[in-house]
Each structure stands twice: as C-alpha cells, then as structure tokens.
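note to self: the first set is below, dont mix up w the second
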Amino acid sequence: MTSTTKPKILVAGGGIGGLTAALSLLKRGFPVQVYEQAKQLGEVGAGLQLSANTNRVLFALGLRTQLEAVVSRPSGKQLRLWDSGESWDYFDLGTVSEHKFGAPYFTVYRPDLMNILASAVEAASPGTINLGKRIKNVSHDADVAQLEFEDGTSASGDLVVGADGVHSVIRSQIFGDGEPVYSGNMAWRGVMRMDQLPAKLQQATSVLWVGPGAHIVTYPIRRNELLNFVGVVEKAEWTSESWSQQGSHEELHEDFSKWHSHVHALIDQIETPFKWSLRGRKPLQRWSTGRITLLGDACHPTLPFLAQGAAMSIEDGYVLARALDEKSDIGAALQAYDGARIERANKIVSKAEENGKRFHNDEMLDPTKARAFVNREWSEENVSQRYDWLYSYDAERIAL
C-alpha cells in the first residue's frame, strides 16, 4: 500500500504479539494505536525461549543490541530423568543454531522483552500505547472498524487486530466459540537467583526433566543472573476461577514428591511460585473477517511443549505487517496473512500436544524402559525432525 493510503490499525492487546505487530507496522509507515486493558505494562516474572525463527524477526525490527544486553545464551539442551537424574546432551544451541538456522538461540526474562518492545514502539511513535483500556465491544462494516471500551470511550480505524490473548474478547465476539478449555495440565512457574543455588545446579544450559505425568524445564535468563523454572503437572481439573495464582512451595514440592533431590533444591530457591492453568481451543481455519483479524494466543493458544508460544505471536505480528504493506487492500492482505500463517500455527498446536505425551510418558516409570525411550525419542534424527522445520522458518521471506 502507498504511504498516502495506509490504513489506521487498532491493536487490541499490549502483550508480546500486539507490540510486535505495532512495531512492525510503525516501521512500515502505518498509523497504529495499541489498547491494553492493564493499567501498566508488565508480566508475571517468567522466562521465554527465543529460537532462531523468533530472533530473526526481532533482529529485523532492529532490536538485536537491546536483546543482547539482557538475554542469556544457553550452550545447549540437556535431558534428565525424573527420579535418577541421569542426563543426556541432545541439542547444541550455540554455534550450531547460528550456523544451521542463521540466528542464535536466546533465553530471556519476559518483562525484559516486554520492556524492549514497548520502548521501541514508543520511540517509533510516542503515545501509541494506551493503558487501562478494557474492551467491551468490537464492530465493523464496509468502511470502518471500531472498539468500545468499558470506560465509555471508543476508537475507530480501518482494521482491528485482536491480540488480546487466550481469553480474547474479540475472538469470542467474532467467532463465538466460547471460553478456552482447561487442557488437563497446570504449570508451576518461578524464577530464582543463580548465585543462591548449589554450584552443581548453576548451569548455563537449558534442562528438560521428563517423567510420568509431569515434566520440568529450567534455563538461565537475564545474563545468567536468574534461573527460570517451569514445572507442568497433569491434573484432573482446575477449580480456581483465576487462570494464574500464587501457590506455595509445599504444594510444589508435593507435586514432584518422588522426583530427584536436585528438583527439590531448585524448588526451595524459587522466590514466588505461581500456578497457571494451561488452556486451549480447537484450531481455527480462518482468523480474519471483514476489518478484523486475530494473532497470537487469541487464535492459536498452544501448550508450551515446543517453546513456541511467544515465537508464533512474534511471527504473526511481523507477517501481518508485511501482508498489509505488500498487498493492494485490507481484504487481500488478510487473505494472504491467513494463508501464510494458519497451517503453521495449527501444526505447532498439534505437535506441542504430541510433545506433552512424550515428556510425560509412563515408560519412564521403569529405568530400563526409560533409557530406551529417551535414546529413541531424543535421537539426533528425531530431534532434528521435530525442530528443524520450526527454527528454519523465515518470516521475512515466506511467500504471501
């Protein structure tokens, strides 16, 4: 689209996907406004894995220097058995990632990434981010799209982008498929200071603990000053009305009661353990209608078993901006966006579910079966088959 005809874009949601979309659009000369329901931008302290496909986008947006100042660079991925602690190295994340996929593998403290994105958006166009704007209603016709907020105000533009997460108001109003459904898995999340850990646990690697009915992932963040902890446990139901809440160290210890002593040494050092309900939806076959589209968890919430949730939001935001810039009108752009993204995103949702079954397999109850299972499932060939297609994706160059 030419600069004189570029439409005004309203982004509903100031999370990672919404801010990436806003920055990608601003850099292409689009007028953008972001509306976030929270009164201040912030995230519960947790980590994120930024694989090569993600960093390729963030670097294209000019954020490499800012990222390199705050991230960790895990040297590799290690797998450990839940009860014995027996370990295998199965992934080099250093030079191999750069050489094979053209970008490094980072791990980052989520609030640090949010701060980088928000600062870049505000630097590109001061006043873009509007806080305390909880969406009440979305509407559109042939000429305009409109957001109404619970504070009585409204905003009009040429396109609304629903980046309002797994509990998306916009998805609910446009596609009417109800609330997200509890997946049968809950996650414990927390961070700890690396220098408070026993020396043997101060690792600059990403570690995956696998076991029957549960798994744990740890990795360094914020220049290796912190260690991020995620423990996922199969639970029959989620009784709390909140999808995230503070939990206790005692309950967390209990959920991993028979696991290796190193796990409990880690749990002891978590500053504040939070419990999260992992929720999902059936994949959509279209994300766009008229002057409204979706991105990120609003259209493809995924279990975190491929570490691609943030990556998909970032890819979505960048590809959407490309489509709007390269196509002749909004209708053609949204058709190209859906066509470029839906198959990949829905495949990631299903492959993450497959990984959950792999991480939680009951074969790991028996030591002999467990070793055979690990050697088979985490062989070089199988790991390459599961991850290469993810990391080699290039949002800058895919056909639209």
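second set (the one i keep forgetting abt)
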Amino acid sequence: MTAPLPASSPTPAAFAPRRRISMTVVGPILALILLAALGAWLNPNFLSAANITNVLARSAFIGIIAVGMTFVITAGGLDLSVGSMAAFIAGLMIMVMNAALPSMGVGIPIVLLGMGAALLAGLLAGLLNGLLITKLGIEAFIVTLGSMGIYRSLVTWLADGGTLSLDFQLRSFYQPIYYGGIFGVSWPIVVFGLVAILGEIVMRSTVFGRWCAAIGSNEQVAKYSSVKVARVRLATYVMLGLLVGLAVIMYVPRLGSASASTGLLWELEAIAAVIIGGTLLKGGFGRVWGTVVGVLILSLIGNILNLTDLVSPYLNGAIQGLIIVLAVILQREGKSGA
C-alpha cells in the first residue's frame, strides 16, 4: 500500500509548468495603452470625443482591409496591391455614378449602383490576383507587385493625370454614409466593428479559419489532410478584394474624389497592422482581434504626430516601416525562446 504524502510535501500541481505570458499577446495591448496615455499627456484634446471619433473613423478604411489581409497572410500569402486597388475601384465607382446620374438622378438607387460596382470590382480584382497565384503558380509578391503598378496607372489614366470627382449633388447626398451614423457612432466605425467581429469568428470558430492556418503552417501537410489548398487560398484573395471594395464604399463619401494619390501606402499600413497584431508573416497563425489593435496603434501614432510637433507627420511611413521590422524581429525571438 502506498504511504500517504507528508502534510508538508508539495502537491503534484506544484510541479506543473507555469504558463508564461506571451508578449505577442500582451505587447500590442500594452503598446496601445501606453500610446493613449502618451497622447493624453502631450495634448489635452487627445481624449476628446471628437478626436477619438475622428481617429476611429479614419482607421476604419485600413481596418476593414487589414481584416482581409489577416486571412491572406495567415494562409501564407501577401497582397501589395490593396492601396492601388482601392484607388482604381474608387475612380471606377465615381465614373459609374456620374455616368448614371442623367438617367437615374440623385437618390438611393444610384448610390446602390455605385456600391454594387465597387464590390464587383473588388471581387474581380481579388479573383484575378488569386487565380494568377493559385492556377499559374506565380509568387504572390510578384503578382501583387505587378497589379499594384497596373491599378495605380489605370486610375491615373482614367483621371488624365488629375482627379476624378463625384458630382456635387451626388456627393452631398452620399456624404451621410461617412459623416452619419447611429447612436453617435459613424457608419465606418460600425462597419469596421462588424467586419472585425465576423472576421474573428471565422478565424477562430470555422473550418475555413483552421484551413487558412493549416495551409500557412505547412502546405504539403494540409494537402495530405484533404484541404483544398488552391481553393482556400483563392478564397482569401477574393475576400480581401471584397473588403477593399467595402472600404472604398466608406471612403468615397469622405472626399468625393479619387486620384493617383488615393490609397497611397494603404498596403503598408494594412500589413503593419496585421504583423503588429501578432499574425505570423510567414503564415500559420492569424489573430483578427490583434489586427484591430494594430490598426488602432498605427492610427494613434499618426494622430499623435499630427497633434504634436515632436516628429514631422511626413515621417509616418518611416515609423510604420520601422514598426514592421521590429514586430518581425520580436516574432523571431519569440519562436527561438519558446
């Protein structure tokens, strides 16, 4: 018979390994809190309702796109064309609405037509990128780098080197999509919130999310596990294209125009937000809620630079690039220390 343990003896639970807190989880949240505290300390207007609403509304465009980018990167892909794609879709949407104005007049039907055109263009653009990558086997970096130049050139050509502007009456009618809202929350923030919630559910609780992680982690093993790798990867690019179209729908009423500078560096911001949020750049693991935190971090950095004179706002792109490099370094160190 086994002798009972002495009263002073440690229990088996005492020998269980302690769960370490991962900095890839806590780090982005701490950074967000510190940035909010820094902004409030530097400028008393930072935490005002008007400023917070402005930051959230402006971050909604990148946020919507970044949710789609999370799935693409989780599945081992990349898309450098989203900023140029957004510019092209915005220009196309404006041209469609202006062309239909004489026959349809100002009203809800013409706005719905423009929205449909944006979503269809986004779907087709994402489908084209996905087919070139999955069917022809071209590297995602090459395909999206090429399409980035194509879309940017197309919108410049359509605008004849200038700006495509929405008709003034249409712009006035369409503006509530950006400036209006519900219960004091603007529509871009509402849409961003819904997209983020749905994205997190799909990533965490559906087979599609698990397939994306499996493909990004080890494509060959995923194939042996009967995962339709090409189909799933294609779906991620189509989803991203649709979300770019949705972001454009929210963006066009803000300025009512599109030009070669529209969406400039959006791809950098979207990728930075995804990596800051903890999604692995090489694929295999994605975190939509982390992407949302990453988007807010980048938005707060830009807002702080605008409200203070510590660093020129023109260096925002340089700061974002530095953040991407640091985030990837932290990911590698986290893997080696695990």
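remember for set 2: The radius of gyration is 23 Å.
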